[in-house]
């Protein structure tokens, strides 16, 4: 079993996405390859979890009250 990596960011933090976040097919009701949040979109972390197999932190970010998207640390930065 892999030890969980401590998350860099916490619930409630305001963040900005560092790249276009695109639907990989796992986001229901939206076309695959559709942009869910363009680069620079602001959001708020609403939940912090971890990938089961790799223990990598996953951040659920609500972007401008439109979509809640799972993000990796390298896809977001605090504002």
Strand order of the largest sheet: 6-5-4-1-7
CATH architecture, please? Roll
Q: What is the N-to-C succession of helices and strands?
A: EEEEEEE
Helicity level, as a percent range?
A: under 10%
CA distance, first residue to last residue: 34 Å
Low-confidence stretches: none
Global structural class: mainly beta
Annotation field: number of helices: 0
Radius of gyration: 12 Å
**Overall pLDDT metric:** 92
What is the name of the CATH class? Mainly Beta
- Strand fraction equals 35-45%
The profile of the biggest β sheet is: 5 strands, antiparallel
Count of beta strands: 7
Total tally of structural domains: 1
| Large-scale geometry | globular
CATH topology: SH3 type barrels
Keywords: Nitrogen fixation
InterPro entries: Nitrogenase_MoFe_mat_NifZ
Family: Belongs to the NifZ family.
Organism: Rhodoblastus sphagnicola
Concise structural overview:
The chain has strands at 14-17, 21-22, 35-37, 42-50, 57-63, 67-71, 76-78. It is an all-beta fold and 79 residues long.
């Amino acid at each position: 079993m892999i030890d969980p990596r401590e998350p860099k960011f916490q619930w409630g933090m305001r963040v900005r996405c560092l790249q276009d976040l695109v639907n990989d097919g796992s986001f229901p009701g939206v076309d695959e390859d559709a942009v869910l949040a363009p680069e620079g979109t602001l959001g708020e972390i609403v939940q912090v979890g971890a990938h089961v197999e790799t223990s990598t932190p996953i951040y659920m970010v609500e972007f401008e009250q439109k979509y809640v998207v799972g993000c990796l640390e390298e896809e977001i930065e605090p504002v």
